[in-house]
Amino acid sequence: MTHSGQDALLTIKEWGVEGPFDYGLVLGTGLGPVADLVQNPVIVPYAQIPGFPKGQVSGHSARIVAGMIGKARIFVMQGRAHYYEHGDPAIMRMPIETMAALGIKNLILTNAAGSLLEDVPPGALSLIADHINLSGVNPLIGVSDDSRFVPMVDAYDPDLREAFKQAAMISGVTLNEGIYHWFPGPSFETPAEIRASKMLGATLVGMSTVPEVILARRIGLRVAAISMVTNYGAGLFGGAPSHSETKSVATEAVAKMRALLEQFFK
Ligand code: HPA
Q: Which domain holds residue 228?
């Protein structure tokens, strides 16, 4: 770990967060309330932690919520940073490496996404099975050792995906499985981009998660990712995505995410 990595770890410990943790959980836009699941939380604002992202998108908190969910010790990141905020695709590197230093081996990522499938409507949850990134942007550009050549087969861990499908079944939550196409944003996609995306095999579109998956796989974390669908992709089934729509996701969808995660951590 880098010098500032040690500082981040030290600060987190000074605030009373003690590892080891079983899971890291990153909560995306609109999903902040899921952190209410944490019992006896210890809270640390990102602004206090060296190397953690500053300046958040509206609709995001910016703090660590650490504690137990069921029998699992969880390190929740309530809010993330995106490439489009800073132009740095590795903006989440410090948090991810800090989680690894706290003993975390499994990272659960959540996000808000657009759906390209009519039968996966706004309010639905979708497990990410794989992704498409043809943007030319990658968080490992500039890393000079061989760790940059990260294999991306089964980047979305098959065992974790199976466990989420089980948890969905038990908790009665419908969970489809999809392919997430990363767009750097911050403007939404054009209808032509969405049609192209669909032809390429994507079922979801979004502006987060993918750089985090690459960074996490580089250091050997097992990753799972779940999208909460907030809208149809631009031009599809009347879809005209906007940030206010993304933020005002049905509380019902947030409740589903809570139920799914609560069951998963049991
Ligand atoms: N496109 C990109 N990102 C998104 C969308 C979308 O339609 N919805 C929520 N995040």
A: 3-265
Cα–chain center distance at 202: 17
From the list 188, 224, 225, the residue with the least C-alpha distance to 205 is: 188
Long-range contacts of 148-154 (CB under 8 A, 24+ apart): 148/218, 150/214, 150/217, 150/218, 151/217, 152/214, 152/217
SS3 (DSSP) at 173:
coil
CATH number at residue 103: 3.40.50.1580
Pocket test for ligand 1, best of 125, 188, 204, 229 (most atoms within 8 A of CB): 188
CB neighbourhood size of 202 (10 A): 24
- Compute the distance from residue 115 Cα to the ligand 1 centre, in Å: 8
Residues 6 or more apart in contact with residue 80 via CB below 8 angstroms: 26, 27, 28, 53, 60, 92, 208, 212
* Contact of 7 with 52, CB cutoff 8 Å: no
Encode pLDDT of 90-108 as tens digits. 999 999 999 999 999 999 9
pTM of the model: 0.94
In the chain, how many domains are there? 1
Ligand 1 atom closest to the CA of 246, numbered from 1: 9
The enclosing H or E element of 218 equals helix 210-218
pLDDT, tens digit (0-9, with 9 covering 90-100), for 163-200? 999 999 999 999 999 999 999 999 999 999 999 999 99
CB-hemisphere CA count at 13 Å for 159? 4
